[in-house]
Amino acid sequence: MNINGHELFKAFHRIKKSSMGRIHKCLMKDLKPHEFFMLITLKKMYDEEEQEAQINGLPSAPGVKISQLSRETAISMPGVSQTISTLEKHGYVERIASSKDRRLVYVNLTEAGRQLETDVSNSCFEIYDEAATLLGQEDTLALVLLLDKLAGAFDQIDRSQCDLEQKEKAERKTT
């Protein structure tokens, strides 16, 4: 059997569809996957900023700026703002205006948003724990090693692509 990139892509799609389908049906009934992705990204970014503020003895911000979310997710500011508005309507996030600069708005999870993120994350771990049990220790370890190797291959492809783009850009400047 000749396995190519298309077969690999289809296998990953089946995994995503079966695992995320189960999670979506059970827990994320009112959210689309990209909205939940924004929710977990917001939580991760806020937790990191809060930890850094504590380490440095600084006050923590009340949330994360939309511009920071845009950079982190590589989604346009209007796209992030629209997703945040949807999450806000569902009661999962809140916008917090700065007391010092009215133009500055932070976004943070509400208690309902934190609970949803925790529940879905725990559910994800449970699904993968079940899969690891079904695969067995040896096959699970082999899969993890192969996936790490694949991640390295993707990193190498990305670096090569960036190098090529930089080379082309430099050539355009000289012509």
Please tag this protein with its features.
175 residues, mainly alpha, Arc Repressor Mutant, subunit A, 2 domains, 3-stranded antiparallel beta sheet, 6 helices, globular
How would you portray this structure in words?
The protein is mostly helical and 175 residues long. It folds into two domains: 5-135, Arc Repressor Mutant, subunit A, CATH 1.10.10.10; 136-175. The chain has six helices and three strands, in the order H-H-E-H-H-E-E-H-H. The protein has a three-stranded antiparallel β-sheet. Strand 2 (93-97) and strand 3 form a beta hairpin. It starts with a helix and ends with a helix.
Largest sheet: 3 strands, antiparallel
- Overall number of domains: 2
From the helix content, strand content and strand pairing, which structural class follows? Answer: mainly alpha
* Averaged pLDDT: 88
Helix proportion range: over 70%
Q: Output the CATH homologous superfamily of the largest domain.
A: Winged helix-like DNA-binding domain superfamily/Winged helix DNA-binding domain
Distance between the termini: 47 Å
What CATH architecture label of the largest domain applies? Orthogonal Bundle
Q: Biggest sheet, strands in spatial order?
A: 1-3-2
> Could you give the count of β-strands?
3
User: Can you tell me the overall shape?
Assistant: globular
